[in-house]
UniProtKB/TrEMBL annotation:
<dbReference type="InterPro" id="IPR013783">
    <property type="entry name" value="Ig-like_fold"/>
</dbReference>
<dbReference type="InterPro" id="IPR051913">
    <property type="entry name" value="GH2_Domain-Containing"/>
</dbReference>
<dbReference type="Pfam" id="PF02836">
    <property type="entry name" value="Glyco_hydro_2_C"/>
</dbReference>
<dbReference type="InterPro" id="IPR006104">
    <property type="entry name" value="Glyco_hydro_2_N"/>
</dbReference>
<keyword id="KW-0326">Glycosidase</keyword>
<feature type="domain" description="Glycoside hydrolase family 2">
    <location>
        <begin position="742"/>
        <end position="844"/>
    </location>
</feature>
<feature type="domain" description="DUF4982">
    <location>
        <begin position="669"/>
        <end position="729"/>
    </location>
</feature>
<dbReference type="InterPro" id="IPR040605">
    <property type="entry name" value="Glyco_hydro2_dom5"/>
</dbReference>
<feature type="domain" description="Glycoside hydrolase family 2 catalytic">
    <location>
        <begin position="328"/>
        <end position="552"/>
    </location>
</feature>
<dbReference type="InterPro" id="IPR017853">
    <property type="entry name" value="GH"/>
</dbReference>
<dbReference type="Pfam" id="PF16355">
    <property type="entry name" value="DUF4982"/>
</dbReference>
<dbReference type="InterPro" id="IPR048229">
    <property type="entry name" value="GalB-like"/>
</dbReference>
<comment type="similarity">
    <text>Belongs to the glycosyl hydrolase 2 family.</text>
</comment>
<feature type="signal peptide">
    <location>
        <begin position="1"/>
        <end position="26"/>
    </location>
</feature>
<dbReference type="InterPro" id="IPR036156">
    <property type="entry name" value="Beta-gal/glucu_dom_sf"/>
</dbReference>
<keyword id="KW-0378">Hydrolase</keyword>
<dbReference type="InterPro" id="IPR032311">
    <property type="entry name" value="DUF4982"/>
</dbReference>
């Protein structure tokens, strides 16, 4: 497969959703989820019990046959999904930093009692899991239904053979994270949504539609819809398949009808499947792009004997993608440089449990920074991520694995690779190949067998056979080795983690000169928000890292160095920064677990250096439990380099940002270097009104303004930035007074009482003037009155062992966050209060919509 295909083959895609409880699709009915019209949330009213390793480290023996109908559930916990059993901790110092020092290992059993009305008898009943960590085994009424080991993939179980219509049924799920390993916090439990799907026996199969746009002209797009129809009856049927196309708005409501596909008739044998291929022309298509992410929905109906028996919704978008070796990536024919971030799946204080509201907040911050692409490192994402990316205008690098046959950890994917890789890759493509945001498939990340030519080809070919419209890539930590071995020949796009400087050599190698290259991982700069050190970048007493954005591991670099490198190779596709957000686990450079230091590095001299570092760290046993890599901290507060990326990625938005803060009473008369990130090209710095000089940045070389010799005096530091000689942006930091009050800002004033919608409340510890006091860490106590509840708190401190569910938390460098929600199905309002001894309290009221 080849670039040619991408340039000619205008792919497209969709957003997967479904209408709830409707057998006939009504226009203007909001689609909750792609797929069968009758798809209902199956998240509520589960019972949970944990065996094996417990939160406190003790072991509780797992009784046999917990799937049995007769199981005694007296002591089981009642809960709603999504659920991450490990996020409530406690953090334990002896647990591994790489997985967040949280007790995620264990055996989890979930049970749910439910009834399907007798009137549904004869229907097919499925349960769809968006993801369950890990080694899921599913039982219905004591009978084994099936398994799906890989915790990041979505899968369907057919309950029909064991279901009792009109009577109580018991669905039981066994999860086992004891037999799973990870290099970051994976979470544990049914941490994504679950759905109950009802269809007639003749119906569109699971992920049974595939929409492409093989040809897009200015005024029309050819639409091709493949529809797989299953016949679960014991006789041959004639099924008539029709598909109508509608425009779809941001709320997933179908609007104007814009076309119909040619009807096709399938003759499907008893218990067989047939596929219909239908076509249409969409006139004047509204293209999906990053600024106007227009979407459509294809509504497919299957009729037997003149009666509609199934309705299936497939959201999609129309856009072209083209990858060129010399002119980067083109979206709808226009060059888009990839300004990407890698992100793990956890949502900080909420753990791995998916929450659309929290994810939307994250993506909103990334978008504001100018990020235009997301790498789902290193696993299939929640479907909600793709839906949000489709709606908000992000391109997605959709990734399958962190390990193949040779593991990075004893119990990682290597255990199941042989039996499961094909099934997992097919599940990933079938689920995601209609999303317009998905533009690259990635078969791996720094897999130890990345030089295996045969395996690389095999995996890439599986992806291509399921979706030839997108390129296949792989993230290499040894790009030289990957290319020398020839493994990269099998890929369409070369993914290079960190080693961009080798590019010139590959640009002249006939095997690779035509292979587009992307920085699948870059930078890995580490810092702690609001910390600035002057002698060493690292503080091994507090386990924090200076925020001058100049600290990084041996394989990483600062954002500036990476921008400089990118400027040298403008023909490459762009970069994915490691990472957008801090995440749970992998607290490099304070990780005292051997894997993170040792598992990638092939250079023996590096290994020796890393081993020495590891031995030192193991002696001091750092409490660090989350990463320092984020451009934004774990609580969602931007670190300084947020403004570096924003300046570079959104050059037309006036930005100026000074660092550090200006509260250095112990450094009066001493030097405090001042740096400024700006989208301008020049700036003049003033301390208490006196100019400290004007500095310029050379395009492609400098990415911050630096005044390295500023002698500290309290007062006001101001920068006036210029662009092409004209005044462009300013920033001011002031020495604050003592902390006297709490300032509170909620990210909204209204919330839905649906158990999902969240309000994020930022508390600033402030002085009399309302300025946030840096380096202030008082204990803040949150309380709530009315129909709301506090879900979690955080402050972005990577070393804190305060449980995320605690309503009391010290501020970290002047800031603390409370995440609140309305009580389910309640009306009215609630008031959140924040108090701290000696400070004036604050409160904010949220109305329930
Ligand atoms: C990369 C790896 C990532 C993460 C990162 C930290 O080599 O692919 O998963 O470990 O290093 O810098």
């Amino acid at each position: 497969m080849n670039k040619k295909m991408f340039s000619l083959n205008k792919s497209l895609t969709l957003l997967l959703c479904l209408t709830v409880g409707l057998s006939v699709f009504a226009q203007h009915t909001t689609i909750k989820r792609m797929g069968a019209a009758d798809t209902q949330s199956f998240d509520d009213n589960w019972l949970f019990s944990r065996f094996g390793s417990q939160a406190d480290g003790l072991v509780k023996e797992e009784p046999k046959n917990l799937e049995a109908v007769s199981t005694n559930e007296a002591n089981w916990e009642k809960l709603n999904l999504p659920h991450d059993w490990a996020i409530k901790g406690p953090f334990r110092i002896e647990l591994r930093g790489e997985t967040g020092k949280l007790p995620w290992k264990g055996i989890g059993w979930y049970r749910k009692h439910f009834t399907v009305p007798a009137s549904d008898s004869g229907k097919q009943i499925f349960v769809d899991f968006d993801g369950a960590m890990a080694n899921a085994k599913i039982y219905l009424n004591g009978n084994y239904v099936g398994t799906w080991p890989y915790g990041y993939n979505s899968f369907r179980m057919n309950l029909t053979p064991f279901l009792k219509f009109g009577q109580e049924n018991i669905l039981a799920v066994r999860l086992d994270t004891e037999n799973w390993d990870s290099r970051w916090y994976p979470g544990a439990g049914i941490y994504r949504h679950v759905w109950l799907v009802k269809t007639n026996p003749v119906h569109v199969g699971h992920w049974g539609t595939y929409i492409t746009t093989p040809n897009i002209r200015k005024d029309a797009a050819d639409i091709r819809v493949m529809v797989k129809v299953d016949n679960a009856t014991d006789k041959t049927v004639k099924a008539v398949v029709t598909t109508d196309l509608y425009e779809m708005d941001i709320h997933n409501t179908p609007k104007t009808k814009v076309g119909s596909l040619i009807t096709s008739t399938l003759e499907i044998k008893a218990n067989g499947t047939e596929e219909a291929e239908t076509h249409s022309v969409l006139n004047n298509p509204k293209l999906w792009d990053l600024k106007t992410p227009n979407r459509y929905v294809a509504q497919t109906k299957v009729s037997v004997d003149g009666k509609v028996v199934d309705t299936y919704n497939t959201p999609f978008g129309v856009r072209t993608i083209e990858f060129t070796p010399r002119n980067g990536f083109l979206l709808n024919g226009k060059r888009v440089e990839i300004f990407g971030t890698c992100n793990h799946h956890d949502l900080g204080a909420l753990g791995a449990a998916i929450n659309t509201s929290a994810l939307k907040r994250q993506l909103g911050m990334l978008k504001e920074m100018g990020c235009n692409s997301l790498r789902t490192s290193h696993n299939p994402p929640a479907p909600e991520l793709l839906e949000l990316a489709d709606k908000m205008g992000f391109l997605v690098w959709d990734e399958a694995f962190d390990a193949w046959k040779i593991g990075k950890k004893k119990l990682d994917y290597n255990l199941i690779f042989v039996e499961w890789h094909e099934k997992d890759l097919i599940a990933l493509t079938h689920r995601d190949r209609n999303n317009p945001s998905v533009f690259i498939w990635s078969i791996g990340n720094e897999v130890p067998d990345q030089q295996n030519v045969k395996l690389t080809k095999e995996l890439a070919d599986i992806m291509r056979s399921e979706d030839p419209t997108r390129p296949v890539s792989n993230g290499y930590n040894d790009p030289d080795g990957g290319r020398s071995s020839g493994a990269v020949v099998a890929l369409d796009v070369m993914g290079v983690n960190y080693f961009f400087d080798q590019q010139p050599k590959w640009d002249v190698d006939p095997r690779y000169e035509k292979k587009p290259t992307i920085g699948s991982e870059t930078a890995s700069t580490v810092s702690s928000r609001g910390e600035y050190f002057f002698d060493d970048k690292y503080n091994k007493t507090t386990w924090q890292i200076s925020s001058y954005d100049d600290a990084f591991p041996g394989w990483g670099c600062s954002p500036d160095i990476q921008f400089r490198t990118n400027a040298k190779y403008p023909h490459l596709l762009g970069e994915y920064v490691w990472t957008g957000f801090d995440y749970l686990g992998e607290p490099t450079p304070y990780n005292s677990d051997e894997t993170n230091l040792l598992n990638f590095r092939t250079d023996p001299s590096k290994q020796a250096e890393l081993e020495a570092k590891l031995a030192e760290l193991q002696k001091s046993n750092p409490p660090s439990r989350s990463s320092y890599f984020g451009i934004i901290d774990l609580a969602g507060f931007p670190k300084d380099r947020y403004y570096s990326y924003k300046s570079h990625w959104r050059p037309d938005v006036p930005t100026a940002h000074i660092l550090p803060h200006w509260n250095w009473s112990e450094r009066v008369g001493k030097v405090v270097p001042v740096h400024v990130y700006t989208s301008g090209d020049e700036g003049e710095l003033f301390l208490n009104g006196k100019s400290l000089g004007r500095k310029k940045m050379e395009a492609g070389k400098d990415f911050r303004l630096m005044w390295e010799d500023v002698v500290y005096a309290p007062g006001e530091l101001k920068v006036v930035c210029y662009k092409k000689g004209k005044k462009w942006a300013t920033d001011v930091v002031k020495t604050t007074g003592a902390a006297t009050k709490i300032k509170m800002a909620a990210d909204r004033t209204e919330v839905l009482a649906d158990d999902v919608d969240l309000v994020f409340i930022t508390v600033d510890i402030s002085d009399n003037e309302g300025l946030m006091v840096p380096r202030s860490n008082p204990l803040v106590k949150f309380s709530i009155e009315g129909a709301g509840e506090i879900v979690a708190t955080d402050n972005g401190d990577a070393t804190s062992f305060v449980p995320f569910q605690s309503t009391e938390r010290p501020a970290y460098n002047g800031k603390v966050l409370a995440i609140v929600k309305a009580k389910k199905e309640q009306k009215g309002q609630f008031t959140v209060k924040a108090e701290s001894e000696g400070l004036q309290a604050a409160a904010t009221t949220i109305r329930i919509k």
